[in-house]
Amino acid sequence: MVAAPLAYFRGEFLPASDAKVGVMTHALHYGTAVFEGIRSNWNSEEQKHSVFRPREHYVRLHDSCNILRMHLQYNVDELLDITKELIQKSGFKEDLYIRPLVFKSEERVANLKLHELSDDFVLLAVPLGNYIDTRAARCIVSGWRRIDESMVPTRVKISGNYINGILAKTDAILAGYDEAILLNDDGSVAEGTGENIFIVRNNIISTPPISSNALPGITRDCVMHLAVEELGLTVEEREIGRGELYLADEVFFTGTAAHLTAVGEIDNRSIGNGDVGEITGALQDLYFTLIRGSNKKYRHWCLMV
Ligand SMILES: Cc1ncc(COP(=O)(O)O)c(C=O)c1O
C-alpha cells in the first residue's frame, strides 16, 4: 500500500507529486486542457475496485480532444489498460477518483491558438469520498449564467470552461449553501456546477436537454435508464423554468463526483419535505448497489480491477 497517489505520466508510473510541468505551459495560461472524472468504487466483499463506465468516459475524453485539436496517443482500450494498472499499482482499498487530463504542453506564452502545439497526458488516481457531503443539498440559483454553446463548446469537459461553475460554487458556499444551480442565458435551468439536474413532479421525471447547455452526463444517462427500466417511470428531456424548481416534489443532482444527491432546498424554499424524496431514494438504492459491481444485471457497466 502506497501512502501517496500515483500518476501515469510520459510512459511511467510515479508519485503524483513528481509529475511536473513548467510555468510556461500553454494549458496553465489559457485553460487549454480537457479532462474526465471517473469513479473507482471499492467493493469490500470482493476486495476489488469497480471502475464505473470507464469506456464511456474515455470516449468523451476523445470527443473533448477533437474539439481542442489535441492528439491523444492512446485509444480507449489502451486507456482502460493504463487505468487498471494505475489502480493496481496504487494499492488503495477505498473509493478513488480517476482523473485523466490531456493538455497543451507547449512551453510558449503569447500563443492564442490550438494548432501546432504539443499535447501531453497524465492520469491520476486519488482517494475521494463524498463530494457533496450532505443527505439533501441546500442550493441557490446562481447569479452566474451557464456558458452557452455559441461561446464555447459545453458538451465536453474543457478545463477553462470550469471557471463558470467554480465562480458559482464558490459564491454559493461562501453564502452558506452546499451547491449552486445555473440558469442559461435565456433563464431556463441548465445544471449544477459539476452535476446534471432532475426534477420530479407528479411522478414524472424531467431533466434539461443537452441543448440547454447541459453536459451529456454519464450518470444522467444511467439514472434515466434506471428510472424507465427499473422503476417504470416516465422521463422527459425538456426545458425547465426556474419556478418549476420551487414547485417540484423532488429535485436531485447526478454526476460522477456527486453520485446521486438529493436537493432539499432551493433559494430558501424547501423541496418536498426537505429530505431525500421517495423516487430519489429508490434511484439511490439502485445506483449505489450497481456502481460497486454488486448488481449482476449492470455488472457490464463496471470494470472490476
Ligand atoms: C459541468 C458538469 N455537468 C455534469 C456533470 C456530470 O457528468 P457525469 O455524470 O458524466 O460525471 C459533470 C461531471 O463530469 C460536469 O462537470
Pick out its properties.
alpha+beta, D-amino Acid Aminotransferase, Chain A, domain 2, 2 domains, 17 strands, binds pyridoxal-5'-phosphate
Shape: globular
Question: Ranges with pLDDT <50 over ≥5 residues?
Answer: none
CATH superfamily of the largest domain: D-amino Acid Aminotransferase, subunit A, domain 2
Helix content: 25-40%
Assign the CATH architecture of the largest domain.
Alpha-Beta Barrel
Instruction: Indicate the CATH class of the largest domain.
Output: Alpha Beta
Description:
The chain is of the alpha+beta class. The chain has two domains: 6-127, 2-Layer Sandwich (D-amino Acid Aminotransferase, Chain A, domain 1); 136-290, D-amino Acid Aminotransferase, Chain A, domain 2. The protein is built from seven helices and 17 strands. It has helices at residues 26-30, 54-67, 76-90, 162-174, 218-229, 242-247, 278-290; strands at residues 6-9, 12-15, 33-35, 38-43, 48-52, 96-104, 119-127, 136-141, 179-183, 189-192, 196-201, 204-207, 234-237, 250-255, 259-266, 269-270, 302-304. Helix 2 packs across helix 3 (76-90). The chain starts with 5 loop residues before the first strand and ends with a strand. The mean pLDDT is 97. It binds pyridoxal-5'-phosphate.
Topology:
Layout: E1 6-9, E2 12-15, H1 26-30, E3 33-35, E4 38-43, E5 48-52, H2 54-67, H3 76-90, E6 96-104, E7 119-127, E8 136-141, H4 162-174, E9 179-183, E10 189-192, E11 196-201, E12 204-207, H5 218-229, E13 234-237, H6 242-247, E14 250-255, E15 259-266, E16 269-270, H7 278-290, E17 302-304
Parallel strand pairs: 8-9, 8-15, 12-13
Antiparallel strand pairs: 1-2, 1-7, 3-6, 4-5, 4-6, 5-17, 6-7, 9-10, 11-12, 11-14, 14-15, 15-16
Helix pairs in contact: 2-3
Bound molecules: pyridoxal-5'-phosphate.
The site of pyridoxal-5'-phosphate (PLP) has 15 residues, from helix 5 and strand 14.
